[in-house]
Amino acid sequence: MPEHFVSELNQDTRTEMVDLLNANLSNTIALTMAVKQAHWNLKGRGFIGVHELLDDVADRLREGADLMAERAVILGGFAKGTIEVVAEQSKVEPYPVEESDIAAHIEALKERFMFVGGEVRKAMDAAGEAGDEDTADLFTEVSRTLDKDAWFIGANA
Questions:
Q1: Which of 79, 136, 144, 147 could crosslink 69 through cysteines, CB 3.0-4.6 Å?
Q2: What's the CA dihedral at 1, 133, 137, 30 to 10 degrees?
Q3: CATH for 24-154?
Q4: Helix axes 102-129, 47-74, angle to 10 degrees
Q5: Taking every annotated instance into account, which residue ranges of this chain make up the domain Ferritin/DPS (predicted)?
Q6: pTM here?
Q7: pLDDT digit string (tens) for 116-139?
């Protein structure tokens, strides 16, 4: 691993945290692309509100991804966020690319937000158990944003 900037964590813990961060980075990037897929293609009652909401949601997802990627590097690892890595590593269910119904998009996004939120909470717990409270706190911040955006999206149903 390259140089790290955290002295209190041993190599094994840093490696474990980098792996957790990258796994959740892949899921978050996949979710961001699902949000944009819906943003580009949805049609129906409430279109403009949901269309504009999804741009804001994608921005917040990118902010969370950036936090995870930067923390991986701070811990002495590499942020792995290329499309090739995301395609291989993400556990997010593939998003339908030939869907336009707004209600179907809302449901598909809500399901994926719930899944990614659950994965982030598992990572938050693992980071806390490993003694890396800073990474656990980062996952807590990302989790709160995911939950709020799941609510924003799901409330349109």
A1: 79
A2: 30
A3: 1.20.1260.10
A4: 20
A5: 19-155
A6: 0.96
A7: 999 999 999 999 999 999 999 999
